[in-house]
Amino acid sequence: MSLAPWLDACPIVAILRGVKPEEVEAIGAALIGEGLNIIEVPLNSPKPLESIRRLHAAFGDRALIGAGTVTTEDEVSAIVRAGARLMVTPHCDPQLVLAARARGLIACPGFLTPAEAFALLAVGADALKLFPAEAVSPAVVKSLLAVLPKGTAILPVGGMSAETIPAWKSAGAAGFGVGSSLYRPGDGAEAVAARARALRQAAGMA
Fold it and tell me: Which residue of the set 40, 75, 116, 169 is catalytic?
């Protein structure tokens, strides 16, 4: 299982922080309808494992369903049982990458420094989440890609929007984790779909 084909289809990772299980299927359908097929439910959302289960049951055959804000190996096991196929962490923890890979998950751990990036790649990270991206600039991605192994996928997260994505894309980012500029707790499916369209256009996928 690889993240690359999903990013090639659409490089937007939809981060549904705060989503509730009873609304997640409608939001998921809106995202998939607009071509956003990578959906992440952060574990600090209400009943996140239930939301992941519902997304997996409804869309697992055509979307990559993942869990974000994963910080322990017990959580890795729990998200696998819920049906997740993608693990995203907020920080550099090589042990979580190893745990995820051992369970067949795609691993996209968080990093901020070159040392963290190389440490995570050394244990098999599939992609790297640059977080918090607000702390750096697109120029950092360009510099990192000059020294990291060829083909390394960097996904900035934090501050991603239709306005900011083009600069990161030009710098070489392979994808973009988008949270509050796509979904905020309480948003309806129609509003999310409209934002998804704008994000696709910003990423050059219109």
Answer: 40
